Amino acid sequence: MACLGGSSLSSQTMILGREYYQTPFGEKYLVLGPIAVHALSGLSKRILSKKSPRPARSPLSMTGYSIMILFLPIHFFTHRLHPTSPLDSIHSVGPAELDFEFVKLGLQKWPFVSRGLYAGLLLSVGLHLADGANIIWNSWLKESLGRPRRWRIQSLAMLAFPPLIGVWFLANEPSLVLSSTARRFEAAFRENWLYRIL
Predict the structure, then answer these.
(1) Which of 17, 89, 91, 182 is 20 to 30 A from 192, alpha carbon to alpha carbon?
(2) Rounded distance, CA 16 to CA 19, Å?
(3) pLDDT digits (tens, 9 = 90+) for 155-189
(4) Where are the alpha helices (DSSP H) in the chain?
(5) Domain count, the chain
(6) 131 located within any domain
(7) Which residues contact 138 (CB under 8 A, 6 or more apart)?
């Protein structure tokens, strides 16, 4: 949405989605639950299977581990847990205040860290999704989608590049956040060790 309407359209769209994914039921069972089931099923398949389903260095495995160990925890803590902290410097940024201005501030204040983390998350998820879809397609339909490398590039172009362009748009938009809210946003970002040292 950011590449179509900037932070305004992105924030409006996010508010619609929050009705489903940021409720006590929705966050547990529609967001965190499926992620945990997917990760645990992949790990248990690797551990319990008599023959290794994929090499540990395959793009599917490498992106899965990078998402699970690095990108997803950092993203979740930075964008979900730290802003709701009751610390005096953050003062529990509420859902009405937490919109894409938070993302813009991070991109503008810490450009290398934020852009690197968003790019890593989007590219890893895009490649993991492309490889996983290719495996499912070939397993169930027994038809090849073509050469894996070509399929990965095309899938990344469709899945990861539009959000990456949106990140670029957000990074270059002027900030519209109030200075008092910006200080609270900065304090929330600094709860993450990456934003403190870089």
Answers:
(1) 17
(2) 6
(3) 888 888 889 988 999 999 999 899 999 999 999 99
(4) 2-21, 24-26, 33-48, 59-66, 72-76, 100-109, 111-141, 148-159, 161-172, 179-190, 193-197
(5) 1
(6) yes
(7) 144, 145
